[in-house]
Amino acid sequence: MTKIDRIEKKFLDLKSINKKALITFVTAGDPDYSTSLNLIKKLPEAGADIIEIGMPFTDPMADGPGIQASYLRAIEAGQNLIKTIELVKEFRNKNNDTPIVLMGYYNPIYCYGVDKFLKDISMIGVDGLIIVDLPPEVDNEVCIPAKKHGINFIRLATPTSDEKRLKKILVNSSGFLYYVSVAGITGSKTPQLQDIKKKIDFIKSKCSIPLAVGFGIRTPDQVKNIANISDGVVVGSAIIDRIFEGIESSKGEDFIVENALNLVKDLSAALRNEV
Q: In angstroms, what CA-CA distances link 28 with 32, 66, 74, 103, 222?
């Protein structure tokens, strides 16, 4: 675990007041470094409990068109893994409480150097990793070394994860388990609450860590409904769409940031039963 296990502390703090976690996803460097940093710094005040930051990659196979486009925008603006680490470092200069989870794919980490990557992100206060293309069968690559550096390794479970598969997924999982509410790519479909509840009840009977639900969750009502049956809700594509709307408006950085933050505020209000 980390020196301060911010993820564990966040879920425990929220549980103590009978609240659930709002986990927001944004892409590092989208549409540029400055705007991205500005937005990430303001997410906690808007209601984000945990911030998931996408590490841009040219072939993000688990992500839908919106997030794929955000990765390409970031890469075109010069974002890379070095700058993503710098982004987190700048965030941590002002905020030492909000958990940060890096999400992405193995290739950029492999090119950077696994040991160097883990040392660097540990030093700047990254709390967790989600590497979508590293299954439990290759835990020695990043998962086990990450845990030795005090970094949680967060796994994905899907609607097709049966009991045998779930057992493997959970062996080295920590922080929270991320349940993919629909089969497919991010932002692609609307999850059906009844189906999700049935699967979550099954997973919770096997799982001792918090369970967060993501993929396809876009509206305050969906957030409220999913929160009733889980420990946290992940929203990504809807926020990325708001960023794109801001870019298209040509109104500049402040508008892009506020347009995204307004959605996060609405989602947070729904989660806290303030609407």
A: 8, 14, 7, 10, 25
Instruction: Confirm whether 52 is a catalytic residue.
Output: yes
Instruction: Single out the residue of 206, 235, 62 nearest to residue 226, CA to CA.
Output: 235
Give the pLDDT of the chain (275 residues) as one tens digit per residue: 436 799 999 999 999 999 999 999 999 999 999 999 999 999 999 999 999 999 999 887 777 888 999 999 999 999 999 999 999 999 999 999 999 999 999 999 999 999 999 999 999 999 999 999 999 999 999 999 999 999 999 999 999 999 999 999 999 999 999 999 875 445 545 557 887 898 999 999 999 999 999 988 999 999 999 999 999 999 999 999 999 999 999 999 999 999 999 999 999 999 988 54
Alpha-carbon distance of 70 to 53, in angstroms, equals 12
CA dihedral 235, 238, 243, 249 (to 10 degrees): -160
* Domain boundaries, given as residue ranges, for the chain: 6-271
Q: Out of 5, 49, 52, 120, which one is annotated catalytic?
A: 52
Indicate which residue of 5, 30, 63, 127 is catalytic. Answer: 63
Let me know if 115 is a catalytic residue.
no
Q: Which superfamily does CATH assign the domain made up of 6-271 to?
A: Aldolase class I (3.20.20.70)
